[in-house]
Specification:
This protein is an alpha/beta fold.
């Protein structure tokens, strides 16, 4: 999820254009920022870890004489966020500079070969190999050299490359990672996304997989994978900058809800090896025979992901797990020792309550495992072992895709433990793996309910109070649905186990009271139907989310949203989609700021 930009144009403009473009791309990564320019027959590079502001400070007062340059804002994947690991990367002779978005899968082998040839690397990143390869094979023709490099590297990439002996040309290529070309007057651009160049042009060429291009001041030539020039359609962008950032979605939250199929795929792919779950060498070093208890610690939405993770571990692996709210953990005299595996879930990796809970657990001798979205975050640096959710930057304060990625990862962890503990058979394991491999398609189907859910939101937007209920794992997902409704609509709601209705809460049910029912578990469906009838007898308004083959729920609820029939254990990963959409559209109908709800921040770094 890095962002890249490149510029070829008139003198004295390169730095301004690149910095402005990076500011529009910082949502794609903010671990570091950097740029490379060709000036006076040399390549100048400046790059800084941290936010873009650090790069701007480093360049302050510098006179810009360049008419060509490339820039990068990083979401770290290989190598911690440091100045050295920041982009652009350069060849040993400093004649080539490269920016890269993606992953070079065979970089370790390539690095070994280059080091044997005497190449000295200055970073731990996968991207640096591209700069050295381009320099090694440079034959005076930038496209033929790029074609050669493409034939060697494997993986995903969007590349922008400049070479000191070609001060008026830049080459680029893409495979899987996005890359566009912007066409201006006496200036042309490349970028990861449209917002980076909208200030300068609305004429855009979208590169397809394996295509390359040469970018010059007054000319752009696109090449097919064989290196032959081709004609490309020019698209006139009609969005404004804010819309472009959101890829045409009205809010980041809706965009991120729609990104969940891709996010789940990325998370699964990262931890698969030879069709088996593999969490890496460090994880494999854990001696689970010496672990006799597991505790999961988190806050807010991550806490709800932890509740589901504990349920998965209990059902699939036969392991007793405690789940603790991080802000209460240190003050509860936790039962933690050297036989404890303590799991800490945090999207940002900077949640202070969670960090303090980890510190205490380490002091008490526990093995610590972090589940986070941010490489190089504090929690990832301090934990014994780290698993990354691969959700990419999440802009909306209300978490959606990061939560789904956390739940999917906890599910994989439970499957891993289940087969390791011989609690599930290889046949069951393979069936679970088959189902989760198809999961992104099922989320896509769940998203097709959004128009119906929007209509339901119009009916409930004036509610002041409501309840979310479920049984078993559905009760865990009901908590997350209730939290989403509170966060962005300001409707007061409570989530409770459906069986607890009769123990007090039903006294609050009166005509028109909103009750959202989650009912996906086969062995609980009859009891859930009874609970709905109890609510209806007192005038409650019931919106039920259930599987499409549970027609008995349709018969008793006021409104029903169906998800596909799927293994009960995986149903929560589908059920969360309509719950997210219901909260989203209700906030929209109320005219609220969906992405920035009042009093909330994306990362809570105070106690």
């Amino acid at each position: 999820m890095c962002g890249i930009i490149g510029y070829v144009g008139t003198e004295n403009e390169a730095v301004e254009v690149i910095l402005d473009g990076l500011s529009k791309l910082e949502y794609r990564g903010y671990d570091s920022a950097g740029l490379a320019l060709i000036e006076d027959g040399k390549i100048f590079i400046e790059k800084k870890s941290g936010r873009l502001l650090n790069l701007k400070k480093a360049l302050k007062g510098r006179v810009d004489k360049s008419c060509i340059g490339i820039g990068h804002t990083r979401w770290a994947t290989h190598g911690n966020p440091t100045d050295e690991n920041s982009h652009p990367h350069f060849s040993q002779d400093r004649k080539v500079a490269v920016v890269h978005n993606g992953i070079i899968e065979n970089y370790i082998d390539l690095r070994d070969e280059l080091e044997k040839e005497g190449v000295v690397f200055t970073s731990q990143t996968d991207s640096e190999v591209v700069a050295h390869l381009f320099s090694k094979y440079f034959d005076g023709d930038m496209i033929s050299t790029l074609k050669k490099v493409k034939s060697i590297i494997r993986g995903s990439y969007a590349l922008g490359i400049i070479e000191v002996d070609n001060p008026d040309k830049m080459v680029c290529a893409r495979k899987e990672s996005p890359l566009i070309i912007g066409l201006g007057k006496d200036k042309n651009f490349i970028a990861s996304d449209v917002p980076a160049i909208l200030k300068y042009t609305r004429d855009v060429v979208f590169l397809d997989n394996d295509e390359m291009a040469i970018i010059e001041k007054n000319k752009v030539t696109v090449f097919d994978p064989q290196g032959q020039p081709i004609e490309k359609k020019v698209t006139k962008v009609e969005w404004d900058t804010e819309q472009a950032n959101k890829k045409g979605y009205p809010h980041f939250m809706l965009k991120e809800i729609h990104e969940q199929p891709e996010v789940v795929n990325k998370g699964i792919a990262r931890y698969m090896k030879d069709s088996q779950i593999y969490f890496g060498e460090e994880f494999e070093k854990i001696d689970f025979s010496k672990i006799d208890n597991i505790v999961i610690v988190a806050c807010g939405t991550a806490y709800h992901a932890g509740l589901q993770g504990a349920y998965f571990l209990k059902k699939l692996a036969g392991i007793k797990v405690d789940v603790e709210v991080a802000s209460e953990f240190r003050y509860s005299d936790p039962f933690i020792n050297e036989k404890t595996l303590a799991i800490f879930i945090s999207q940002s990796g900077e949640t202070l309550d969670t960090l303090m809970a980890m510190k205490l657990s380490k002091e008490l001798g526990a093995t610590t495992l972090a589940i986070t979205n941010v490489l190089g975050s504090t929690i990832s640096r301090e934990a014994d072992i780290v698993l990354y959710t691969m959700a990419g930057p999440e802009i909306s304060v209300a978490s959606t895709k990061a939560y789904t990625a956390q739940v999917a990862l906890m599910y994989m962890f439970a499957m891993y433990m289940g087969i390791k503990n011989k609690k599930i058979s290889i046949e069951e394991y393979n069936e679970y793996m088959r189902t989760i491999a198809e999961f992104s398609d099922r989320i896509e189907v769940a998203l097709e309910n959004k128009e119906k859910i929007h209509e339901l939101a119009k009916k409930i937007k004036d509610c002041r109070n409501g309840f979310y209920i479920g049984r078993g794992i559905d009760e865990k997902i009901a908590r997350e649905g209730s939290l989403k409704m509170k966060e962005i609509t300001y409707i007061h709601s409570e989530a409770i186990a459906a069986g607890e209705l009769k123990h007090g809460t039903i006294a609050l049910i009166e005509p028109g009271t909103l009750v959202v029912v989650v009912a996906t578990q086969k062995d609980m469906i009859e009891k859930m139907v009874s609970n709905i009838k109890e609510i209806k007898a007192r005038g409650g308004y019931v919106i039920a989310i259930t599987k499409e083959n549970y027609s008995q729920v349709l018969e008793v609820a006021d409104e029903t949203i169906f998800i596909e029939d799927i293994n009960d254990m995986l149903a929560p990963l589908l059920t969360v989609v309509p719950l997210q959409l219901l909260a989203y559209y209700t906030a929209v109908e109320k005219g609220l700021d969906v992405d920035k709800p009042r009093n909330l921040a994306k990362s809570v770094t105070v106690e």
